[in-house]
Amino acid sequence: MSILQLGNDSIQINGIRVSTIIGVLEQERISEQPIQIDLKLEIDLSESSLTDELDDTANYGSVTEQVYKVAKESKDLLLERLAQRVADEVLSFQKVLAVDVTITKLRPPIPVDVSSTSVHIWRKQSTESNLVNSSSAVIALGSNIGDRMSYLRFACDSFDRKLKISSIYETEAIGGPTDQDSYLNLVISVETSLDPHALLRKCQRIESGAARQRTVRWGPRTLDVDILFYEGCQISSELLTIPHPRIEERRFVLTPLSEIHPELCPPNWNEELPPEEIKLFGRIDE
């Protein structure tokens, strides 16, 4: 049964072809095999049909790219597990209410004449994602490669409902390889209907859109997008920790944070942290 109350609007994306490692047999763990992914996104299209604005719907190009990436990199044993990964990724897009996922093995390695095998699942936004009542989150942005301002603008523009945006501050790189260029950092607060883990996937997707490479720990990067706080939420897991575990050590985060949310900064942080050269650089809207 559809969760849509105003009809059965949908976006369908069919025939995403990917060669990937999938399966339990020995040869399936060595050689890639072709699969096909078909999607049906349940989404209320009444707003976008009037405004003609991409922000009022789900960008099927971005959805397709992210699903392809998930399938290419997953290396799961079962189609069922890959289908769940794909569903989770699609549901991280803010406007998507539910999704049908069908994944088909185009050349199943079984000793009978079968043209294909497939798995189909239907998943909806969990009640925990709070579709009706949005939550606020505080996010830190940083860049020290290439056109730093353009990357920061790209990240800011990727969030629909921004509540507050700090000034931009320039700091020297701390930790990691030597001879890195200086960072530009700012902090924003946003309103979101995504749950914390879906918001994390959105942040990672924004980083990927800026060609972020994760090759060296604390190395230079085109864009860093970190969740600092999520309203009413504390999480400690391998994938996500909220509040961010190193906020109190980072003057380059606390300085812009204190500008828009001083109540979230630890007491006397400015006196207790070691001195660090931080220069006011400007604002994102200048």
Task: Write a brief caption for the model.
With about 290 residues, the chain is of the alpha+beta class. The protein contains 7 helices and 12 strands.
Key structural traits:
286 residues, alpha+beta, GTP Cyclohydrolase I, domain 2, Alpha-Beta Plaits, 2 domains, six-stranded antiparallel sheet, four-stranded antiparallel sheet, 28% strand, disordered N terminus
Write the CATH homologous superfamily of the largest domain. 7,8-Dihydro-6-hydroxymethylpterin-pyrophosphokinase HPPK
CATH class annotation of the largest domain = Alpha Beta
- Strands, total number: 12
Number of spatially distinct domains = 2
Which stretches of 5+ consecutive residues score pLDDT under 50?
A: 1-6, 127-132
Assembly state: single chain
What value does the Rg take, in angstroms?
21 Å
The CATH topology name of the largest domain reads: Alpha-Beta Plaits
CATH architecture of the largest domain: 2-Layer Sandwich
Strand/helix succession:
EEHHHEEEHEEEHEEEHHE
Average pLDDT level? 85
Count of runs of 4 or more consecutive helical residues = 7
User: What is the makeup of the main sheet?
Assistant: 6 strands, antiparallel
Counting helices, strands and paired strands, the structural category is: alpha+beta
